[in-house]
Amino acid sequence: MFYLMEVEDHVRVEPKHFGLPTNEAIERQLNESYVDSISKELGYVISVISVDGVEDGVIIPGDGAAFYKSTFKLLVWRPELHELVYGTISEITNFGAFMQIGPAQGMIHISQTMEDYVSLSKTGTLSGKASKRNLGKGDDCIARIVAISYKGDSPKIGLTMRQSGLGKVEWINEDKKKRESAVKKIEKAEKTEKSGKTGKKGGKKQ
Known about the structure:
Blueprint: E1 2-13, H1 22-33, E2 38-39, E3 43-54, E4 58-59, E5 66-77, E6 84-93, E7 96-101, E8 104-109, E9 118-120, E10 126-128, E11 134-135, E12 140-149, E13 156-160, E14 167-168, H2 169-201
Parallel strand pairs: 8-13
Antiparallel strand pairs: 1-5, 2-3, 3-5, 4-5, 6-7, 6-12, 7-8, 9-10, 10-11, 12-13, 12-14
């Protein structure tokens, strides 16, 4: 999920930015230090939105940079447990699929791709034995985040597409049409049954 975060920090501005106006120097330093970084507290930092407050700079002996206590806003993306995400399959493997969701990649284990027995086909897609459905690179999908681990340089995100309303967009549309068709058949049958009962009540004995 995307968030607009207000952050307060002592920004270390390098000497190469000293010739610029203070706010501009801090914004450039923030772009270098924060943008594209990943942390458990903030998530994925997408961009610096604004620098809202800057106090007087402090120079620490032995360090050529200046430090400014600053308040600024960042646009971040942070994965949330149970969140629904829309993305595109970026890679297929024999153990599952990787899906690009915003600035991150999530992993869908082969057992979580669909309600079926799934295997890797010769064409490089994940294929369901009974449903005959195929999942391949470039497919647009909706999944749910079921696991997040921040061990290592970037979080590992686990996804599932086995729940109702999830999966390849094409499958979701197919299932919707099937449900609508089933509802229409039931309504038609009920209407026919009701009409038949009405006809019997209206009949006259000879």
